[in-house]
Amino acid sequence: MRRYSRITGTGSYLPPRRLTNADLVAELAAKGIETSDDWIVERTGIRARHFADAGVFSSDLGLEAAKNALQAAGCSAQDIDLLIVATSTPDMVFPSTACILQNKLGANGCPAFDVQAVCSGFVYALSIADAMIQAGAARRALVVGAEVFSRILDFTDRTTCVLFGDGAGAVVLEASDTPGILASDLHADGKHVDILCVPGHVSGGSVLGDPLLKMDGQAVFKLAVGVLEDAARAALEKAGKTPADVDWLIPHQANIRIMQSTAKRLKMSMDKVVVTVDQHGNTSAASIPLALDSAVRSGKVKPGETLLLEGVGGGFTWGAVLLNL
Ligand code: UT7
């Protein structure tokens, strides 16, 4: 009998410090940076974001999200036999945030590693966990997206610092006789490295280059809209489905206008799109599991429904995962 994987629990966590646009606009104005609530809302749909306090790391946010997901799945950390963390803001250069989180969870012993695919990280990690479960290499995986993007923002660059937030989301993915994950479709094109990057690196005890986020927003926007449609259609085709079969589209939460364009191209109503960018901002690899968990917990998304998750981000990377909840 074919082996599938299925999400059995979701969880998420936002650090308590919440900044509305008005809060951020005031903080930036004090530094001589001019922006406005109107501009941020109109161009992005973002109204608020959460920032972690100093000393709080991706593994700390991931820990709370993981605990919530484990509780929802009715299992404990010791039941996990695979731990994958998607993050671009790791606690350290090494070891992986997954190993640090594993120790905090007390899930020691199982394989644990990070996936670095920026804002596509969660769909990459989910797809890898699904493949490992299908191959018999794991039975119960914890897949986490966790980020502290506030640490890599340049608060003198208004074109980027208003866009991002911190947070974490997680799912428990278990072996199952029925799907579960129906199909996934992952891609990368490294020729676009420069349009979204944090170019600094550690060398000889110093940070060389600029360790803050750089983005050509318009170039990213244009690419994102095209590849998100392609990935969605490819994942649907692999499963013999069409956009009409999808109950909920859960896209990476970067910009409401990208989500609207994607929905339009797929001929899906915005009523079928889960939107949390207004309250979370762009939390990179955490955005999809955060949106998923908030939709599950609010009762919007229900067991048995068909979900299309899709991410896009630095690399350039993109991908989609189609699943039955
Ligand atoms: O997570 C990975 C994926 N990332 C994304 O998907 C981000 C994709 N890109 C975007 O979402 C959009 O390109 C942005 C939201 C980043 C920018 O929106 P835009 O409509 O492309 O604006 P723009 O860059 O064309 O800038 C328009 C104007 C410029 O002024 P001028 O040159 O027209 O006078 C900017 O200087 O808006 C100005 N501007 C701002 N004004 C007030 C840029 N940032 C701000 C700001 N406040 N924060």
Quaternary state of this entry equals: single chain
Number of helices: 10
Main structural class: alpha+beta
Helical content band:
25-40%
Strand order of the largest sheet: 1-7-6-4-5
Describe the largest sheet. Answer: 5 strands, mixed
Unique bound compounds? oxa(dethia)-CoA
Give a topology summary.
Blueprint: E1 4-13, E2 18-20, H1 21-30, H2 37-44, E3 48-50, H3 58-73, E4 82-86, H4 97-105, E5 112-115, H5 121-134, E6 140-148, H6 158-161, E7 166-176, E8 181-188, E9 196-197, E10 201-203, E11 206-208, E12 214-215, H7 217-238, E13 248-251, H8 256-265, H9 277-280, H10 287-297, E14 306-313, E15 317-324
Parallel strand pairs: 4-5, 4-6, 13-14
Antiparallel strand pairs: 1-7, 2-3, 6-7, 8-15, 9-12, 10-11, 14-15
Helix pairs in contact: 3-4, 7-8
The protein binds oxa(dethia)-CoA (UT7).
Explain what this protein looks like in three dimensions.
With 325 residues, the protein is an alpha+beta fold. The protein has helices at residues 21-30, 37-44, 58-73, 97-105, 121-134, 158-161, 217-238, 256-265, 277-280, 287-297, and strands at residues 4-13, 18-20, 48-50, 82-86, 112-115, 140-148, 166-176, 181-188, 196-197, 201-203, 206-208, 214-215, 248-251, 306-313, 317-324. The strands form five sheets. The protein has a five-stranded mixed beta sheet with strand order 1-7-6-4-5, sandwiched between helices. Strands 8-15-14-13 form a four-stranded mixed beta sheet, with helices on both faces. Helix 3 (58-73) crosses helix 4 and helix 7 (217-238) runs parallel beside helix 8 (256-265). It is globular and about 65 Å long. The mean pLDDT is 97. Bound molecules: oxa(dethia)-CoA (UT7). The site of oxa(dethia)-CoA has 19 residues, from helix 2, helix 6, helix 7 and strand 14.
